[in-house]
């Protein structure tokens, strides 16, 4: 299962390095951040940039969230503890499946491309293809889209609901 850990801005890499060195593999199988590609125009040209999808968050994979929480206790000064004393939030299985489908094993969301016809978005290439109904907002100038994760209710619902940002280039609109 995945858990999210909110850390101070810019401390993501430090937290990941420290955890990789000090937390046993049987407690924490993986630690990672999500990234996405986007295009930005400067110096008269378009440049591909890689950005953090969820700034200030580090994701950990574990089978024992209680043990992992105990192992993370020495790092409490580097993380922001919200909602009581828990440092970790469990990512619900539906959201985990959605992010796995979107970003793959590399936890990276590559650029998508599409067009708008008659007010409807069509994605022709990239990981957003087939997910057009979940696109909530497109900023054509910045070449990004905000994606809505699947709705989660019941006991699987978590307090952590992060907006997904993806690179989307709209090449034409009528």
* Inertia-based shape: elongated
Unreliable runs: none
List SSEs in N-to-C order: EHEEEEHEHEEEEEE
The first-to-last residue Cα distance is 44 Å
Mean pLDDT: 88
Q: Characterize the main sheet.
A: 5 strands, mixed
What level of helicity do the residues show?
10-25%
Question: Number of DSSP strands?
Answer: 12
Strand content: 35-45%
Strand arrangement within the widest β-sheet reads 9-8-12-11-10
Our count of helices gives 3
- Which structural class do the helices and strands define? alpha+beta
Radius of gyration: 18 Å
Concise synopsis of the structure shown:
The protein is 17% helix and 37% strand. It is built from three helices and twelve strands.
What does this structure look like?
With 174 residues, this protein is α+β, with helices and mostly antiparallel strands. Helix content is 17%, strand content 37%. The chain has 3 helices and 12 strands, in the order βαββββαβαββββββ. The strands form 3 sheets. It has a 5-stranded mixed beta sheet, with no helix packed on it.
List keywords for this structure.
174 residues, four-stranded antiparallel beta sheet, alpha+beta, five-stranded mixed beta sheet, elongated
Helix and strand topology:
Layout: E1 2-6, H1 12-22, E2 30-32, E3 35-42, E4 45-52, E5 57-61, H2 65-72, E6 88-90, H3 93-103, E7 108-109, E8 112-117, E9 120-125, E10 135-139, E11 144-147, E12 164-173
Parallel strand pairs: 3-7, 8-12
Antiparallel strand pairs: 1-5, 1-6, 2-5, 3-4, 8-9, 10-11, 11-12
